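Researcher: Here's my situation. A collaborator sent me these components and asked whether they could plausibly form a single complex. I don't have experimental data yet, so a predicted model of the whole assembly would be a useful starting point for our discussion.
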Amino acid sequence: MKTQIVRKDTVVADPPLARFLFSDTRLAPVWFLVRIFVGFSWLDAGWHKIIDTGAKTNYIIDGQGILAFWQRIAAIPAAPAKPVISYDFYRSAIQFMIDNHWEGFFGKLIAFGETAVGLGLIFGAFVGIAAVSGAFMNLNFMLAGSTSSNPVLLLLGFLLVLAWKTAGYIGLDRYLLPILGTPWKGVRVSAPVTARQVTVPATS
Amino acid sequence: MGLAPFALIVVLSAAAGIAVQVLGGTKSRYDALIVGVTAVFGMYFASESFPGSTVFSTITNFGPVWDGFVIIPGLVFGFVIATIAYIGTRETYRTSTASA
C-alpha cells in the first residue's frame, strides 16, 4: 500500500481590492446607481420596440423592423466601401436568419428581452443573469456595426457581472439570492477541504 | 443642464445628506455620503433622461424647467433613489456590540 495525495477543489482567492469592489456590500450603493443607468437604457430601448406598431418598423407584430435592420447590415456594398459587418461568420448568421424568416421570433425576443433586462437591473432581480444577457446583446449590436451607447453599456455590464453577488443588494437580489444559496448572512463554517488522502493499493 | 441648476442639485443633496446624518439617529459615518451622491445622480439622471424617453412618452408635460433642469421629475426621482439607497444600506455599515 502507498499513500497518494490527490489535490481537489483548488480555489484561487481574490485580492482584497477585488473583494472590496465586487463582493463587499459597502459598495452596493455604487452598483445601485450603475444598475439604474444601464437598466433604464435597456428599458427605454426595449419599450420603444414594444410600442412601435409601424408596418415597416415594428418588432413584435411581424418583426419588419428587425428584418429591415438585418437586411441593411448584411448588405455588401460595392468597393471601396466596406461592409457594416466585419466578420463573415456573423454576416452568414444574419443572412441565414433572413432567409429562414426568423424576424418574427427574434423581433419579440429582442424587444421583450431588452425590457426584461432593464427591469431586472432596475429592480435588482437576478442582476448577474440580466447583466450577462444585456452584455450579450451589446456584443451582437456591435458585431452588427452599431456603436452608439453599446461600448459603455457593455463595459458597465461586465462590471455588474463581476459584482453579481452584491450589485443587487439594494434590490430584490437581497432576498432572491439567499433563497438560491448565496451566503450573505455569514459564512457557513465547515471543515476546510484542501487536499484529500487517498489510499490506493500498491502495484506489484 | 446649466451650471446653476447643477450647483443647486449638489447643494440640495448635500443638505439632505447632512440632515439624514444629523437628524436620522444613525451611527454610520457614510449616510450623508450615500444619500448625497445618490440624490445628485437621481436628480441629474431624471432631468436628463426622463423627458425624451419612450418609457414616459405618455407624459406630455413634465412641469417647469429651469435652465435645462426639469424640476419635478428631478426632485421626485432624486428623493426616491436616495431613500431606497439609505434604507437599503441602513444595516450595512452598522457596528454591532456583543454583550457578554
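Model: Some features of this prediction you could bring to your collaborator: DSSP finds nine helices and two strands in chain A. Strands of chain A lie at 2-7, 195-200.
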